[in-house]
Amino acid sequence: MKPQTADLWSKQDQHEGDRWRFFSAVAEAIEAENVLYPGCYVDIAPSFVFGSVTYLDVDKRTPGFFDDVDGVAEIVAAHNGPVNSDITFVHADYTSTLALPDNHFDLLISLYAGFISEHCTQHLKVGGTLLVNPSHGDAAMASIDSRYQLVGVAISESAGYKVDTKNLDGYLIPKKPQEITVDTLHESRRGIGYTKSPFAYLFTRVA
Q1: What is the pLDDT of residue 189?
Q2: What is the pLDDT of residue 3?
Q3: Is the pTM of this model over 0.85?
Q4: Domains in the chain, please, with CATH?
Q5: Residue 199: CA count within 13 A, CB half-sphere
């Protein structure tokens, strides 16, 4: 493994094993063969549990990380990832037109990277899952998008994470009355303060 690869992963995995535990909980809750992860930076953790993942980021450090194929494979193997893990990296801005198939991926990941659901939903299968956290407002964006329906929440616990699919009516309720629209979310570029705060939300694409 190249020193730069090890260094970037070490900084990404500051809370050792946390991303592994998170994606493991998600993998237990849904079935996904093909995964798309825009805004991934060097978070290779989805490949610890999913067989085929397309990573996409515009950061100038990411090509060097993913070009170290043997080093990335070493990280995946150290976390008991799939033996024949299929890893693809695209160096691009997810807001641009992407050379990716429409209605193809089973899982779309949106973590700490802006309004991914707004730009990349076309690549997610109808019936596929959007995994999104509250950061930067994308969970709120999905909540007002008629193409999506809330089907679960990922909750952080002392031993790791669990995905809860019950009593979902208690989620996505703002702490204070406010109008939530595409325009207000674009203006603030921040998450909404909700009465309950899971680590992430799972939405199914219904249209």
Answers
A1: 87
A2: 95
A3: yes
A4: 3-205 (3.40.50.150)
A5: 17
